[in-house]
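Table 4 source record.
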Amino acid sequence: MLVLLLALTAGAALVYGITYVTTTRRPARTISDPTFERTADQVCVRTLPKLRATRPASGTSTAKSLGDLADRVEQVSTALTQVEAKLRQVPVLPQYRAKVDAWLHEWDVYIAVGHRYATAIRTGNQKKYTAVGDEGNAPVHAIARFARANHIDDCVV
């Protein structure tokens, strides 16, 4: 039941995020580097849909199902590390390097939360893993805000 609740919560968060991103006004641009924007978007469009498509399996709240969920969270976090590394390799105009680095820092924070979340899930302590999961809200919003502002919509995690 707990894993089902987690899956439903994750699904609701994804729907909310997609709805928020597609229905709210686009933030003002923070960079103007069409080559970076296009290339970064291509990196994300090749990698992120596969990660988004995999949902945690629903089922009972046994230690095995929580373990499976933790394993999946760990796998996604590791895969996001690879996406972030590819984004770091995309050339950017020097005047925008600091802003892109700040955006990529938010990816690092979000990924670190993902790994801690997997560890917390393995404890079976709902209060603990919920608190750790909540830590991912700020970086994911920052990632989305930058991506939307700069027309890198496929990089909204």
